[in-house]
Amino acid sequence: MDFAFNPEQELLRQTLADFAARELAPQYMARDNDADLPREVVRQLGELGLCAPMVDSRHGGQALDYVALGIAHEEIARADFNAAYVLLLTALVGAIVAAHGDDGQRSAFLPPICRGEVVPALGVTQPAGGSDAAHVKLAARREGDSYILDGEKTSISFASWADTALVMARTGALDQGAHGVSAFYVDLRSPGVSRNRFKDLGSRAIGRGQLFFDGVRVPAQARVGGEGAGFVQVMQGFDFSRSLIGLMCIGAAQQSVEETCKYVVDRQAFGGSLARFEGVSFPLAEAAVKLRAARLLCYEALWLKDRGQPHGWIAAGAKWWAPELAAQVLHQCLLLHGHLGFSMDLPHQQRMRDVIGLEIGDGTAQIMKLLVARALLGNVARGY
Ligand SMILES: Cc1cc2nc3c(=O)[nH]c(=O)nc-3n(C[C@H](O)[C@H](O)[C@H](O)COP(=O)(O)OP(=O)(O)OC[C@H]3O[C@@H](n4cnc5c(N)ncnc54)[C@H](O)[C@@H]3O)c2cc1C
């Protein structure tokens, strides 16, 4: 067993930690307050090779391993949780196109994503319910060399400003379930596309919202993978992205734990440092141990992914546990700052609000536990 990052991974971690603390952290809260993640930030992340870096170099990527991708998510999220969404969405859409697109699609779609010039969204969730993700209703009707898209996607990260979206649409009958769903890489400037933005509790910089498709004509070449194969492709992608989300949340919580340790050591009360009291130090000790364990779970799933070994239930467990734990830890850090923690000037509230979003996004704790239970107990634990 080897728990250490290799020298390249360690160098990446240190480089990104320095970059993120210097370039991203100072404006994290201001960007969220303005509900704006400037293109300049996306371009910087692209220049650093952080957008879909696992893609091979022929298509603009770095052929980076998945553990290194996890390191990037953790370090960027420590400084700016919402900037890390750029890494998450580019990795997810990039991985699906790289794995299931044809050579023409890879050459056309991937390089601009990897350079940070094109921001892609992923359109899975329907207004009728996200947990039952296979129940896609948005219709794609074949018409000659095109498909015509009609319907709505909701709760989509970057919906209000993304350039493109990988959209799950129904090409088969509703009773075909997941097998009647295809994936289309859609230019969101196409006629018939409209969008809006939600007023969110946190992560306002990502501009989550709805995408409406009103008779949108998409060339047949924009269908990624076989007809009816789209849903299965995305679900394979989610396996690894769940660990990335876990690491984003852990990065944010770990940053607050470190800041809180410093604060309670410095804060003087009852004739000495607040850190003398177990009521203050034990919550931080518990947080440090639990975060470390959850972090290992996330990295184990990515390590297995790098070795081509099954990691589905471990990644699902990481997606359930890490965001929930991070939200609890951040709440505790906020409280340990006393009245100052309640102020919008400190980052703990920001991180807590942001992390809560990913307790829901990409599948809730209940759905993740269903996946773990199915792996343990088989289909008897399907839950429906
Ligand atoms: C910050 C954020 C970013 C997001 N980004 C994207 C994105 O980029 N693309 C995208 O497609 N979607 C995105 N989503 C949507 C997200 O994936 C869905 O919100 C999520 O899957 C849950 O679906 P729902 O909101 O419709 O809740 P519902 O499915 O209606 O569930 C409501 C509640 O019931 C519970 N529940 C549902 N079914 C079961 C069951 N069988 N057993 C037990 N409990 C159950 C759920 O856990 C939840 O607590 C995002 C959401 C958020 C908050």
- Rough outline: globular
Q: Determine the strand fraction and express it as a percent band.
A: 5-15%
- Rounded radius of gyration (Å): 21 Å
> What's the rounded overall pLDDT mean?
96
Summing up helix and strand content along with how strands pair, one would put the structural category as alpha+beta
Would you count the extended β strands for me?
10
What ions, cofactors and ligands are bound? flavin-adenine dinucleotide
- SS field, number of helical segments: 12
Q: State the low-pLDDT regions, or none.
A: none
Major beta sheet, strand line-up: 1-4-5-8
The percent range for helix content is 40-55%
The rounded distance between the terminal residues' Cα atoms is: 39 Å
Order of helices and strands: HHHHHHEEEEEEEEHEEHHHHH
